[in-house]
Amino acid sequence: MKQIKFLMLAMLAFVTSATFTACSSDDDDNKSTQSNYDKYQQAVNQTVNSQKKSDKVILLVAFGSTWEQAYDTFDKVVDDYKANFSGWDVYLSFSSAICINNARAGENVDPKDYYDPEHWLTAIGLAGYKQVVVQSLQVIPGEEYRRVRDSYVKDFMNNRNGDFTDAYMKSLDRQVVVGTPLMAEESDTKTLATTLNNEADVKAAVAQGIVAFMGHGNPEGYDYYGGNVRYLQLENYLRALNANYYVGTVDMADTYVDNVLEHVAGGDFDIAVGDVTISMNYAANDAKKAQLYPLMSIAGDHAHNDMADPDDDESWYSMFNAAGIETAAYETNYSEACWKKYKSGDEYIPGLAERSSVRKLWMNHTREAIAKLGTDEALSTPTTASEE
Q1: Where are the beta strands (DSSP E) in the chain?
Q2: Among 56, 215, 290, 337, which residue is least crowded by beta carbons within 10 Å?
Q3: At what angle do helices 68-84 and 356-370 cross, to 10 degrees?
């Protein structure tokens, strides 16, 4: 019994010791995480304090990337916004923690710091901005856009971390708005279809054969009907202009590359979008050439790997070629390419935000958002919202 009791006491001592050790480790991790959070917040605060020229600010929110070409694209977007929105300060944030971390680690390129919307909005509030526009650079109103609108901006308006005084929060009443994604409404898809069809390189390609756009999409099982359906609407508007257009995605059922190739072969197809099934009809297309384009703001991993990789048998490029269609994913005749400022003449994949005509569509959404400032369509803070 004494031996058993001794063993029990020893085990209890070990568990107690392990528990305290684990707690100590957790505390250290928490302190480290908080330390990094504070360090990043201080860095953003310094950026805002050094660059603040106005009481009005536009925060652009992109998913992010780790490609140098994409960084150049984002720089061009910021420059365009600064040139077209006089009197507004403009900043850019990434919503993807993976992209932020990989960019900081220097994946593919020299290390570069980007920060998430929470850090930026905190710095914006601490700097005392009086009007705030958060502009989504997403393409559809899907998962990423909803996270920006319903998490980052909502937390800011609720003063979640208690960073701001009640007086400041009251001053923001109806002075904060969110600019919608590129294809927020069905009417936007028609506008985008016309815009893309008028692009010189796209117009030349669709006159010679198939033009297939690769969007991202959202996985099914979530309430993203309002986002995913935009791809089908865009395809319908494009095909009304030319039957050589097709639109697919990398993350939406029934629109993967093999589905797109089935559509090229022709037939009737039922495509599930959320809880809704949409019937689509495609006439057989015997075109022997195809040009691929990303339907994403930038040309990053998806564009270069999922779409254009010749060494991946499951890439769009490889699968189109395997189907007997001579396929191109890069082009040399694109005149607006950011990359060509230091790689003149190289083959190129243009993302949507590299097209000045498409950037104008995002900026139109920003103007629409600005027009809501001071009205009931702008956001209210809990300190001023009416109680019912």
Answers
A1: 56-62, 89-94, 131-136, 176-179, 210-215, 245-249, 267-273, 276-282, 289-294, 326-328
A2: 56
A3: 50
Q: Which two tokens stand for residue 316?
A: 């769009």
DSSP 267-313: EEEEEEETTEEEEEEE------EEEEEE-SSS-SHIIIIIIT-TT-T
For residues 134 and 128, the answer to whether their CB atoms sit within 8 Å is: no
- Output the 3-class SS for 356-371: HHHHHHHHHHHHHHHC
HSE (CB half, 13 Å, CA atoms) of 42?
A: 6
Asked if 37 contacts 112 with a C-beta cutoff of 8 angstroms, the reply is no
Residue 119 and residue 41 in contact, taking contact as beta carbons nearer than 8 Å: yes
pLDDT in tens, 177-225: 999 999 999 999 999 999 999 999 999 999 999 999 999 998 765 555 6
Q: pTM for this structure?
A: 0.88
Residues 6+ apart with CB under 8 A from 157: 169, 172, 176, 379, 380, 381, 382
The b-or-e profile of 40-62 (16+ CB within 10 A means b, else e) is bbeebbebbeeebeeebbbbbbb
Contact between 282 and 266 (Cβ < 8 Å): yes
End-to-end CA distance of the chain: 68
Question: What is the Cα–Cα distance from 188 to 177, expressed in whole angstroms?
Answer: 19
